[in-house]
Amino acid sequence: MNRIRPLAATLAAAAFLLAACGYDATPVPKAKSDEPTAASSSKPVQCDDPTQSYAPSNDRAKAVAELKNKGRLVVGVSGDTFQMGFSDPVDGELKGFDIEFAKAIAKALGVSLDLRVISAADRTKLLDDGTIDMVARNMTVNCERWEQVAFSSVYYNATQKVLVRKDQAASYQGPASLADKRVCAPTATTSLARVAEVAPGATPVGAKNHTGCLILFQKGDVDAITGDDTVLAGLAAQDPYAVVPPQQTKLSDEPYGLAFDKNAVDLVRYANSVLQQMRTDGEWQKAYTTWLKPYLKVDTTPPAPVYGR
Amino acid sequence: MSQTATPQAAPPPPPPPAAATAVAAPAAAPVVAQAAPSYVDTPALLNRWQLIGMSVAIVFGLVSALVQFVGWQTDGRAAADTDQLLRVQTIKSSLLSADATATNAFLRGGLEDAGQRGAYDQAIQSVLKNIAAAADAQPADRAALEQLNVKVTDYTTAVAQARDNNRQGFPIGAEYLSGASISLRADGNALSILDALVKSNQQRAEDAMGGQHPFWLLILGIVALGVLFWLNRELAQRFRRRINKGIAIAALIVLGVTLVTVVGAWIRDSSNDSLREGEFAKAVAEANARTEGNDAKANESLRLIKRGSGTTYEDEWQKSADKVAASGTSSLGAWNAYAATHTEIKKLDDDGNWEQARKLALGQSVTDFDKFDEAAEAAASKNGDTAAEDLRSGRSLALVLSGLTILLGIAASVFLARGIGERRKEFS
Prior knowledge:
Distance between the termini of chain A: 106 Å
Structural class of chain A: alpha/beta
Shape of chain A: globular
Number of helices of chain B: 13
Radius of gyration of chain A: 27 Å
Largest sheet of chain A: 6 strands, mixed
Helix content of chain B: over 70%
Number of helices of chain A: 11
Mean pLDDT of chain B: 84
Shape of chain B: rod-shaped
Oligomer: heterodimer
Number of strands of chain A: 16
Distance between the termini of chain B: 21 Å
Radius of gyration of chain B: 36 Å
Order of helices and strands of chain B: HHHHHHHHHHHHH
Largest sheet of chain B: none
Mean pLDDT of chain A: 87
């Protein structure tokens, strides 16, 4: 017995020391769910005519006085909406249909143009906090937004449509075909809210922007993308397996306006005068022909302005 | 020696007690009722003492050797853990360097610069090779490294898609790129896995550096000497010899071994403490500074790619810059030069001079940043190598000493056995 005790003590000590030699496995952090979240539809706001803007004015001094930064027009634009507002990978320049209007207004004001790429969800917020003077980012004019910002007269009449996979284009019969499908649109846009209205069986999926929707589409995370025909044409141009079925009817009208701070009425009036000039001197048509006509493949004319607000 | 007294013989057995407890006992069996004789069985006692003494000497040798062996082992583990820490930090730096290069190449626009493409490929190769090496070196990191491998593959795939689309002039390329950069930094993705790996390996290395136990060795020696002292006293009382020669030699061996091993462990412990606060801490700081610096450079490019929507990217740049400044890097001068160029880029961009800001980000900023990156990488590597080499140095001597301790423990037990054996001879 006496011989066993020291031996047991030795072994116990050895076991204790060696037990401390093991390594705990490195904990693996868990990823947050990458599932895109659906946006909620916004509360409807009623008004007489959202396309109605302020009458044009040529008072440049008053307009310039309302700029947030002296001598600069800071405009929020899209950097990834092919043909509307995008950063050209070849030279890094921001180009597109929307950009043409920003350039024309800055030129008329006699100030330098500072283009800022912003997301659709940030449009109103950045106008509110004074970061930017104007939004030229395929922004639909509606009553709800008039509560937050001031719009120019409508500079383009887009329509909301749906983009699907090439092999499903022929069988697409309108919103009813979207039942049980995951449909993507940028968060906080009218397009996403419209999906819930016209296709209640569909699952709306929000993304940061339409290009983000195209990435989800290419990964197979969504089945369709909804948005303005101008935007969808740009997406389809980047992916041969993405098609905007030509036989579909529009889901809604999406009149585009340039957005300003709600109190910058003189700036809006001056922008309206520039837009009017572009409608009449052929600049609007030139911009359309350069950027949109090759993809939309239809002739169109500038929308008639509505004033009286 | 003072073995002058004659051996004390065992006392004669005492007379049997009279009529003890015989009240109820039958008269025919009086012997059964007698108490056991109270004499001392000296040979058995000597045997017992010999066994105790030898056991103590051998256990002392074994446990002391084991404690030294554990110290030897933990020093080796500390060196391996330091290597692993530097490895995962290199993975993180290389991954962020790849991201900084990819975003900068996108900012350049047009046809990708062959040099930047090569730098990106080299950084990703370094990431993948080091992941394989790290998984081989530390099994406890394998689960995390498996996940990291998946995330790095996701990242490189997204960057490849970004390039493909970019070359066709499609803006979706930039979206793939920014998505890849954002995902890299998302919770549960590559960088958070690497943060967990860095944290675990830093903790392991620091714990292992505290693996020397001079106090345990001291306690062990004192206990062994205490037992030997007690044994000698018992013998002295029985045999009228103050000191037993064998026990004295055994005690001297235990004392010598204890002194040498305690001093040795204490020196290693102090050296490890110095390393932990010195080269090791510097290596960690330099590597951290480099990863944060690369993170900042990537955010600078993303800010400009996103054309001023990048308040988020600028906030992230500032967070990284603050960490670099607080890291204690020896390359702070180079960092400050780069940070000054970045401040100019920010001002140009804020003032609406995006094109000039872009030129600066592609030119002077890259030059300044590369100086910082190279200096921080060299400093991290140098300090890390020094720390690991120092932890490995002298380990073979510690192992020899550990083996020698066992032999000396056995030798002590032999001397002790002989010492008590002499008493046995004297008794008989």
